[in-house]
Amino acid sequence: MKSFSALLSFTAVLLALSGVEGHQPIKASGKVASTWWASWHASDFPASKLSWSKYNRVVYSFAETTPDVNKLDLGDSGDQLLKGLVSAAHQHNVQAAVAIGGWTGSRFFSSAVATPANRTAFTKTILTLAQTYQLDGIDFDWESPVNQGIGCNLVSPHDTANFLALLRELRAHPLGRALTITAATGINPFAGPDGDPLTDVRAFTDVLDYIEVMNYDIWGSWSDTVGPNAPLNDTCAPPADQQGSAVSALRAWSTAGMPAHQIVLGVAAYGHSFRVAKKDAIVNGSMVAYPPFNASAQPAGDKWDDPAGIDECGNDEAVGGLFDFWGLIQAGFLTSEGNRAPGIIFRYDDCTKTPYVYDATSEIMIAFDNAPSFREKGTFIRSAGLRGFSMWEAGGDSNDILLDAIQSESRF
Ligand SMILES: *[C@@H]1O[C@H](CO)[C@@H](O)[C@H](O)[C@H]1NC(C)=O
Ligand SMILES: *[C@@H]1O[C@H](CO)[C@@H](O)[C@H](O)[C@H]1NC(C)=O
Ligand SMILES: *[C@@H]1O[C@H](CO)[C@@H](O)[C@H](O)[C@H]1NC(C)=O
Ligand SMILES: *[C@@H]1O[C@H](CO)[C@@H](O)[C@H](O)[C@H]1NC(C)=O
């Protein structure tokens, strides 16, 4: 944060003196094989561990918005980590982007785009970031315009319109035109002033290269029952269990005017855990779909999971309960090949194409994605003509079991 802010004013001078010469951004065409790299996991999963040959874009996460429109916060050691990531990416001819926002980092988006003066300042902040770190792309991860996210985001009914105005201003600049500009979105189109999804998002197709639909966290600890983290399909599920999926997200976005080739499917290398009593989990010898769970006994996830504590808004937050794919293996739910471990009860849901594991001793059930789920998603990307995939997060996989599965079917 500090070093970036210091660099900022220095670079602003350079920009003014020299225009925007220097690094020519690598431009994206064709299919997208992308992943988000979480900077706070860099000590366990440094840039050197990325399977560079299997991606054509990597996204540093996150540059958080701050109360000052002239500043973005790259996180602890962000300056050094981002330089390292970009340099490794460029050695492998992979695009390097930065995601602005994230769940905790979207608090000040609304004010940063609220007025023409702030949009001009924010545009300059973003272009300076891109110039300073030789970025090829900017990924807007605003969670979420118009509607509240973490609980203390600034929010305005004009957020989506102001976001569009910012994107237009960014594109009016030569460097902004050269960058690959994307947005990580929910499964429904951007919200209009009333908080409901817009029915027409065509204006965004001119200013965004593509969107990444975050088709995960569809069910979790906040839900009424256990359900899939990242359903491929839900139109085949009982009506009460149709909470969204890749299939319904594609329908919603394309009906609003976002063409399939501008939609990248966000995929999850992690799952959500639930505490499910044995009598609810197993009936007549089979694992039940959508069983009730005990929210007061949320299991902890793996070592990357967020412990219980106070969140950025000052509110109490329960333990997250997330298991990365490697965490499922480490905790003994799966073998090192990613299959059901001995003693674990397993169910693969044929509608959502996602598996569940259950340990009857600890009464922990986990809904996640395995290699067959990723293969199905790869097939869907290819057959529906989507632009590609982006995985949260780079370090969540184990031995590329998931990455290889989606690559094998989406054919990049
Ligand atoms: C413009 O940005 C500044 C922070 O740099 C903020 O204090 C101000 O409230 C913003 N304006 C609006 C209307 O949100
Ligand atoms: C989703 O489910 C519907 C209804 O069962 C089915 O017609 C459709 O083929 C499924 N789509 C995919 C991609 O599985
Ligand atoms: C379990 O088996 C009993 C007896 O065959 C049957 O009446 C009941 O409907 C079954 N329950 C479920 C959830 O399948
Ligand atoms: C749910 O978990 C809490 C905390 O462990 C426990 O006190 C409670 O009895 C559980 N409820 C049920 C219905 O099992």
UniProtKB/TrEMBL annotation:
Keyword line: Carbohydrate metabolism, Chitin degradation, Glycosidase, Hydrolase, Polysaccharide degradation, Signal
Hydrolase found in the keyword field: yes
Domain GH18: 31-412
Molecular functions (GO terms): chitin binding; endochitinase activity
UniProt superkingdom: Eukaryota
SUPFAM superfamilies: (Trans)glycosidases, Chitinase insertion domain
Signal peptide region: 1-22
One Pfam match: Glyco_hydro_18
GO biological process: chitin catabolic process; polysaccharide catabolic process
Catalytic activity: Random endo-hydrolysis of N-acetyl-beta-D-glucosaminide (1->4)-beta-linkages in chitin and chitodextrins
GO CC terms, sorted: extracellular region
Similarity section: Belongs to the glycosyl hydrolase 18 family.
Protein name stated in the entry: Chitinase
UniProt organism field: Gloeophyllum trabeum (strain ATCC 11539 / FP-39264 / Madison 617)
